Amino acid sequence: MGSSTGLSNAVLDVASLLPSVSVIxxxxxxxxxxxxxxxxxxxxxxxxxxxxxxxxDNGSTDxxxxxxxxxxxxxxxxxxxxxxxxxxxxxEASSGEILAFTDADCVVSTGWASELxxxxxxxxxxxxxxxxVDYPPVTPAEQFVASRRSFSYQSxxxxxxxxxxxxxxxxxxxxxxxxxxxxxxxxxxxxxEDIDFSWRFFQGAAMSLRCNPKAIVFHRHRTTAGGFFRQxxxxxxxxxxxxxxxSARLPWTWxxxxxxxxxxxxxxxxxxxxxxxxxxxxxxxVDANDLYFTFLGKLGIRIGFLWGTLPGRKV
Length: 315
Known about the structure:
The chain has 12 helices and 8 strands. The chain is an alpha/beta fold.
């Protein structure tokens, strides 16, 4: 009996040495995915007394709030639209030494929080990012995004916005927010606030970023063409804000805009020919879907970009 008590006390002592972690999840109309996300977070192999889960409802009109309140997590509301505003509400309400972020369409691995925290053993590390794995795709929209691996580290290396981390799987020390501020709430949902925050982190946090591929989350993509298209419009709006905020870093001319619309037109033609089978006898259905979603993505970004640059819009 005494040895069992001693073992229990030893486990408690080890747990007390772990940093406290606040997991923050913004959500808007996420009834399809939020339950699986919360279940996975509650199954994490991290001492419950050393972590808290805060879910910030960003104005949902479906059953999201009901589902969240059915789980032992903190439910918060933020009416200002945008994931950045929702995350800020979670940050301000949190108490953890480490603030970890994921999204409502993600499922985390059981060792996710432990692996993120492991990266903070070096006091000079201010942030740790994990690996984002595509949730097994089913629909054509999901298959297209998964084939692009756009959430992978390798894909970001080729991005004109590199270096940046994705808030679907990252954690920061609380001191980082004290040094560089919160997320910029002007960005639309999933539309550039993580890039903006990353650039400010690398410029002003005076801390390093570490990657731990063992900290894994599985990310669900938009299931329909309409959902994918709307997401790209938001991305385009976010790019417009980034280009206005960092004009020297991201120069853009009307000639480049015309070239971008030229690419939209080319893919529109290719997608149309694939759809009617004109001269594509050797093209597979996968090829046709690839052309179609490439066209949708480029069109959505251009529409969102123009929307974000309309006169009178504040940046």
